[in-house]
Each structure stands twice: as structure tokens, then as C-alpha cells.
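Q: What would this complex look like in 3D?
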Amino acid sequence: MDGNYILYKLILASVILLISLVVAMYSTLLERKVAGFMQDRLGPNRAGIGGIFQPLADGLKLFFKEEFMPGTADKFLYILGPSLTMMIALLTSAVIPWGNSFIINGTEYTLQVADINVGVLYVFAILSIGVYGIMIGGWASNNKYALIGAVRAASQMISYELAMSMSIITIVMMSGTLSLKDIVDQQHGMNWNVWYQPLGFLIFIVCAFAECNRSPFDLPECETELIGGYHTEYSSMKLGFYLFAEYINMFISSAMIATLFFGGYNFPFMDSLNLSHNALTIIGSLVFFAKIAFFVFFFMWVRWTLPRFRYDQLMRLGWKSLLPLAIINILITGFVIMIKNHL
Amino acid sequence: MSANQNIGSLSGRSKIVSNKKMTFAERIYLPAIFGGFRITISHFFKKKATIQYPEETRPIAEIYRGKHVLKRDDEGRERCTACGLCALACPAEAITMIAAERKEDEMNLYREEKYASVYEIDMLRCIFCGLCEEACPKEAIFLTNVTVPSDLHRSDFIYGKDVLVEPVDKRVDISHRQTPEVLAFKKDKNQSHNV
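A: Here is my prediction, written as C-alpha cells for the whole assembly.
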């Protein structure tokens, strides 16, 4: 724990924070582009080449909007809501291994802010408090629509957290560790978890959509019936924080999917390239980001393909389909592990 | 009894609603979801319908009926004689004019003894049917393939002679609308409208 180490971690944390923010910023542009392309349009293309400055213009616009607060709102909670959502959205990135490690002058610098041995539990813990930001914001606005949106968000997130945790338990059972870095290292080369846990992956990705409040599970913000749901009463950059947090969540979820099921920074034929450790780390990180980019695209692809679920359908899917499936998956995995150990 | 059964099907197009149980493939949604993915991604790569408007415009026909022009003759004199047939023919009542008598020193300005001192078309009333052009006995008014631009005030859409009359040095080509066949048709005495 020397000064160098702390400095390195500080820099790494800042860089990851910056990357998360920039990626989220450009996800908004990508979303509009993907939406446009899938509807035979071009999407925003006037601000800069191909609309590259559109997110900046959007951000500026949000800053200059009137800061509105309902007269009956609880001032402290009203401000706490979006801040909490944003903070929690950014917290998860601490345990995700963004790359292997650099070896400079014999010292190893891992590309992970904190390799805690209960990384998976940490992610769950953060996920479960994620609903508070939405809940507090919806409650504090003192608006029926916002409250209904917040209640929907809360029940939806609690319901889908169960199935999500259970689908990850199978990964933990297989790898025998809760550290995300160890889980990634065990998926060396093409030995990805998705080949062993296709059902677990399916459950996880469906739950990830629900946890991010993304379409087809975007009932909490339901433009048509709830006029934006929990952020109905928000304007200016507070609204921006809510919308932005959604894209950060999407980015982090994609990173989690890539980490748990698609080998993180591992890629096929990584041993036959005969590259140095550092070069391999750089390529590995790029591959990791390519995987994340694909899943971010997938999130958008789903949004512009599927219609929104009805509330009872959502609950039925979560409790009656995904949860039993996840439990069956755990049983099968346990059975296979037991047989393997006895052979 | 048989009459009772047929009541629902007087048109012969009634359908029996099927309320069958969904199959397993339908219940897990996944095949349908992947079908949807296939459709959206195919649209992702399709040619876009967007036209980059100010730089690029949709192609229009050469005989398109757009903004009007008041023609001059070969010597640069206004052809319009303010007979009012166009205003009479106009189904939208968009045309108004005030006639005036030509003075001695205006021989090079107006072709006929009578001319329109004021000639206005309300472009918001105009339906661009082209009946004014058909009614004109002097071949003075024509529609062009220029679109009427948008504006901020209603009063700005009332186009006067300053906009409508073609400039002497910048003649408007109307040969697409006034082909020899059209001209012959308008002069043909066998047609009832020319008698």
C-alpha cells in the first residue's frame, strides 16, 4: 500500500469513470441512430459529421433548461433521487475487470479498481440499492404518475433480482469463486461460460433488461400511460441524470454480461498469437469493449423490436417462468458437478 | 333454427374466432422474438427513405403545377389584358385584379390596350389546379415547377405583380406546360370551350 499504488488506483478509477460517462453519452447518440436506421431513417446527422456533436448539444440543452421543482415536493429527497441513481449506476464499475494487467518494471498493475473476493455479492448489493434512487425520486415528486412509476420500478426490480441472482449462482457453482477476476480468468480463450450455461445466460439477460428498466420492461417510465413515470416531475439536468443513469446502467450491464458469460477480456487464439503480456492486455481490453459495444447495441436492438409488456405479464414472466427456470438450472448444474466429481 | 344460425353470417364473411391454447413455442415467446430481430436488422441495412431536404429535393415532374408566372411576349410586354377569365375560372377564388388603361407612353410595357395594374394571387387559397392557365386567352399565366416557399405571415402569401411577372432579362421557361399540342388544343375551334 505505497503512495504509487494509491495514485495508480486513483487514476484508474478516474479513467473508468470518464469512460463510463463518455460511453453513456455516446450511447444516447447510438440509440437515436439505431432507432433511425431500424425505422428506415437516418437519425440525427446535422451536429458535426454524422451527428457526432449531438450528445454535447443535448447536454447543453439540458443544462440551460429551467430548473423546476413542484411546490409540494420534498426538497431534500427530490434532489437526492437523481444523485443517488447516478452514484449507484457508477459504483458497479469498480469491480469489473476491464482488462488483464500491465507489467511495468516488474510491478503488476491490474486493470480493475478493486479485486474484492466477493465481487459478485458486491454487484448484487449495488443492484439492490439501485431501486432507491427511482423510489425516492418518484415519492418526492408528490405526483401520482411518478409514484406509480416508482412502485412499478420497485416491484419489478425486486422480482427480477431473484431470478438474476439465481442465474449467477450457477456461474459461482461452476467456477467456485465470487471474484469477478477469477471468473474471467477461468474462461480463458474460448472457454466461455455461455457454452455451459445457455439457460443461465438467457435468464440473466432478460433480468438485465428488467433491472435496467429497458424496453420491453420499461413499465416504470411508460411514456404513453405514465408520461415518463418516476421522472415526470423532473426537468433540466436532474432529468438528465435519470436518463443518463439509464445509459450507464446499460453499459455496466453489458459489461457484466460480457464478464460473466462471454469471457470478459479473453478472446479465441490468444495463446497462439505469441504476443507479450502487455500487448495481449491491450488487445484483450479492446475485445472486451467490442463485446460490451455489441451488447449495448443488442439492448437497443431489443428496444426497437419488442413492444412493452403488460404489468401482469411482466410479473408472471418473472415469478412463474424465470424463477422456476433458474432454480431448475441450479439443480441441473449441481447434479452435473456432483457426477463430475464422482467420476 | 337454421335461420337462427345464419343470422351472424348475412354477409358470408363471418369468421369463427379461434381461442386455442398457445403452443409451447408460442408461450416462451422466443421464436417470435427472434423473428422480430430478423425483421428489424433487415431494416437496419435497407436503403433509407430520408431526403436531406434543403440540400436535396425530391424529384418533381416537369409539368408540375407550382408557383404561377405572368408571361411577357417576345418584345418584353406583359401579355395579361386583365380580362378576369382566370379569376372567374379559379375554383378557390384566389385571384384578384384591377384593370387599367394603357397610356400612350406605355406601348412598350403592355401588349394590349387594357392591362392589370394590380394582379394578386393568394397562395394560401390557391389549390394549384391550373384552371387559370387553361382559361387564359392571352397565354399570359402559367404554372411553373417552383414550389411556393414557406413564410411567417398570412399576408406574405399574397403574391403581387412584383413576384408573379417574369423579369425581362430572366425569362421563365414554360415550354413543358405549353407544348404545341396544348397550344393547338386551346385554339381548336371544334372544341366547345374555344367557341
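A: To summarize the key features: Chain B has a mean pLDDT of 85. The first strand of chain B starts at residue 68 and ends at 70.
Q: Very helpful, thank you.
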